[in-house]
């Protein structure tokens, strides 16, 4: 299967570009593989259950396999363990906890203990909030990345987003701060005073959006996703241009 082509299809489904760690995982051999038993290596058991349930809500089983049957939870565990930086792994695990706490606060129970209807209700709400949050973060990135965090520019940032909360940084050459008004974290290089990173708080929305990206990428590069949901032909035959979609039936996984 042409994995690059399948990734392009997955990106179209998501509505945004697949992130570098996910692309790296797929192109270097990580793929969703159905297993009778899934033994997590990155997640603990509780985290794996929450992630697996969310993946199944995102792509449920219908007349085609769902995320679980396609082996997506194993794929997510593998990509997180092998392709994400330690910093991003920690953020994701923090967001798993935040997601389940939000489930308890909004729906009255842990996500894995909710009825399917309640799970879907929560996911729909978080999907809307997460996309809005992602758009805000992308807007802030375009505005601030690469700028020098000096007067009067820093004063303008504080006027717009309030005074930041300083956070400990593992690297002594960097300064981390959190802006509650914009709900984003910012990292400044102490040597150049330049803003080098903007990222969202590891909350329920972060967990949902990251899991959604991984689920879609894992599913459409799995055998069931590529062969039963998308059109698939291992060795494409003759070229036929401008074929009506009605004759094909569904999008191709390969080209």
Q: How would you explain this protein's 3D organization?
A:
It is a single chain. The protein has helices spanning 3-14, 20-27, 45-58, 72-83, 86-107, 116-144, 153-161, 204-220, 223-229, 245-248; strands at 165-167, 174-179, 184-189, 195-200. The chain is α+β, with helices and mostly antiparallel strands. The chain has two domains: 3-144 and 202-248, no CATH class; 147-193, no CATH class. A four-stranded antiparallel β-sheet has the order 1-2-3-4, with helices on one face. Helix 2 crosses helix 4, helix 3 (45-58) packs across helix 8 (204-220) and helix 4 crosses helix 8. 36% of the residues are buried. Mean pLDDT is 81; it is low at 10-14.
Task: Sum this structure up briefly.
Residues 10-14 have low confidence and may be disordered. The protein has helices spanning 3-14, 20-27, 45-58, 72-83, 86-107, 116-144, 153-161, 204-220, 223-229, 245-248; strands at 165-167, 174-179, 184-189, 195-200.
């Amino acid at each position: 299967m042409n994995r690059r082509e399948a990734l392009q299809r997955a990106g179209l489904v998501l509505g945004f570009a697949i992130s570098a760690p996910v692309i790296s995982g797929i192109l270097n051999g990580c793929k969703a593989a159905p297993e009778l038993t899934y033994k997590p290596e990155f997640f603990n058991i509780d985290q794996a259950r929450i992630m697996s349930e969310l993946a199944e809500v995102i792509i449920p089983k219908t007349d085609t396999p769902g995320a679980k049957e396609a082996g997506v939870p194993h794929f997510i565990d593998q990509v997180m363990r092998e392709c994400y930086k330690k910093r991003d792994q920690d953020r994701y695990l923090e967001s798993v906890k935040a997601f389940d706490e939000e489930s308890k606060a909004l729906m009255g129970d842990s996500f894995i203990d909710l009825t399917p209807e309640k799970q879907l209700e929560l996911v729909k709400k978080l999907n809307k909030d997460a996309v809005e949050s992602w758009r805000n973060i992308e807007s802030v990135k375009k505005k601030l990345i690469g700028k020098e965090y000096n007067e009067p520019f820093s004063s303008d940032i504080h006027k717009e987003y309030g005074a930041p909360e300083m956070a400990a940084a593992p690297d002594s050459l960097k300064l981390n701060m959190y802006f509650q008004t914009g709900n984003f974290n910012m990292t400044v290089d102490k040597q150049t005073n330049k803003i080098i990173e903007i990222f969202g708080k590891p909350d329920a929305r972060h967990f949902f959006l990251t899991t959604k990206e991984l689920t879609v990428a894992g599913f459409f590069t799995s055998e069931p996703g590529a062969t039963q949901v998308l059109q698939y032909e291992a060795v494409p035959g003759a070229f036929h241009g401008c074929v009506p979609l009605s004759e094909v039936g569904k999008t191709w996984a390969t080209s």
